[in-house]
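SecDF P1 head subdomain domain-containing protein
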Amino acid sequence: MRASWGRAAAAVWCALATTAIAGCGGGGGGERVFGGPVGSAASSPAPSPSAVARDAEPLRFLPVEATAQGACPSRTALGADQDAYVTYRDAKTDTCYVVMPASGMTARPAWAKATDETSGAGWVVTVGLTGRDRARFARLTGTLAAQAPPRNQLAMVREGTLLSAPSVAQALTGGTVQISGSFTADSARKLARDIRGG
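Structure:
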């Protein structure tokens, strides 16, 4: 699978930025993600409208194995390891993402909010991870940062829906993740709402 899909994916890779994560697919399209300050999720609780719904499904962070334009491949096209892979399609960008669930992690973020940054970044979505998920997320993003595209991408999935698939450029260790890019107020609020699970 890697050989044939890897070549097909070359045409649709997102360009990496010099930020912690640069994204493509899902969410607002072209988004970038930055690690937040260490301990910010624990030391400054988010306002209640930003809190994740108690009954929300956990958010899954899944390593991307390959990407390609158009429809996702059939299970048999995934090769001998077809049971190790799952596919998600982003209809907005007409991109298929092949992910490896066993290598990812499931987390229940503490909060997520959309804000209009005065620093010139425009609308951003900030997500706070709980203490026990921070170390696992740092290890996962550190592993992905060492990979070549598209295997450095991290699909964010909830309830079988791809929310975003940013590319990881470095380990994110602070417990707070900020997604920025070509968001409008509405698209940033929608992504934050989707991450919160309602």
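The helical segments are 2-9, 40-43, 131-145, 185-196.
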